[in-house]
Amino acid sequence: MYLASVERPAAGRADRTTRLAGTVLALGTVSLITDVSSEMVSAILPLYLIAGLGLSPAVYGLVDGLYTGATALLRLVGGYVADRARRRKTVAGIGYGLSALMKFGLLAAGTSVPWISAAIVADRAGKGLRTAPRDALITLATPDSQLGRAFGVHRAMDTAGAFAGPLVALGVLAASGQAYDSVFVVSGCVALIGVLVLVLFVRDHRAPRPATNTVSPGAAFALLRRRPIRMLLIGAVLLGLSTIGDGFVYLIIGKHEAIATGWFPLLAVGTSLAYLLLAVPLGKLADRIGRTPVVLGGYAALLAVYLLLGSGFGGSLTVVVILVLYGVYYACTDGVLMALAGPLLPAELRTTGLALVQTGQALAYLVSSVLFGLAWQWWDADGAIHAFALLAVVMLPVSAVLLRAARVH
Question: Which regions form coiled coils (predicted)?
Fold first, then answer.
């Protein structure tokens, strides 16, 4: 009975509800606080690097790619170690702590692009370590039939932080006379609070150690021999290749609409608000009609964003539509893809398997960010977005076939 209550949710309806509330809400609170910190930096980083430091779009594309993709392989290491040691909370805590410290690293880096890049890589290394163990804790504590709802609740709390972060950054910039350093300091302090909440309120429920440990490098690599997992991974990578970063989306909007520096962070607020409002309803919809259609619908919304960005714009109403569609994309894909992957993976390798999917997407994102930055440099922003819209048109139906082959759900 103890093993069932740890690695899989117990059968009783009341216990399932308690498990979902306890695990998801505790981790959601940590993510909410952490995302306030992260989005404070993310909201100003594109403007800081391009307008403040004068980087070219190509160099920014490389830095943006590093922000998500350069430490992708560390996700696999973190996922495997968390499964092997059965200490998912510990590995996640190290990741949250590293990211918190690197906010102060950005402050120490000053205007040195190499040191800024190093701090960004270390910050994303922390994210790489924490994401899979956190998501594994959610999947192991939630019935398969409720995973969409569970991830929707978690991502809604996470996005509440993402919504608040740019607003806090805006307030800090206004109070400090547009001093970016002050944003880094406040962001680091907020992140440390998130680590404290994790330590105090999140429990790492672990089963008794089995006589033989089934978690090994061979078992981890064997996941790729399972056709559903392989199809899901390839589909996720192809979708990732057609995805550009938030910074590029907001920079293109700012370029067309001549948005003042002080208001730039509000673009991220608009996306986060749409994501916040839609995460739970779309998570429930995914449980009801199937997660694959919802994920594909999210990438269709992203394609619509590309088409609008490349259309020459039509004023503030078009900007609002773009931000709403961008929020729809995140609400349909972020947690729902993990909910789609979770039931395909054995409990003892759940963290490793989720890390595998996340690593594939992160590496694809690294490639797409660099390519988009180069395309912007060569053809300007409109040419780059047209090229990626065409890429998305090709990738979406191919990925649909692969995801449907991975699971009938």
Answer: none
pLDDT, tens digit, 9 for 90 and up, residues 217-266: 667 677 878 888 889 999 999 999 999 888 888 888 887 776 766 677 77
Domain count, the chain: 1
In a domain, 4, yes or no: no
Q: Which domain, by its residues, includes 179? A: 11-202+216-406
pLDDT at residue 359, rounded to an integer: 84
Nearest to 386 by CA among 224, 200, 252: 252
Distance separating alpha carbons of residues 257 and 250, to the nearest angstrom? 10
Is residue 80 in some structural domain?
Answer: yes
pLDDT of 195-206, one tens digit each? 999 988 887 766
Look at residue 46 and tell me if it is in a domain: yes
Q: What's the whole-model pTM score?
A: 0.73
Q: How far is CA 105 from CA 116, 131, 138, 181, 236, in A?
A: 8, 21, 30, 11, 32
User: What pLDDT, in 10s, does the model give residues 393-402?
Assistant: 999 999 999 9
pLDDT of residue 267: 83
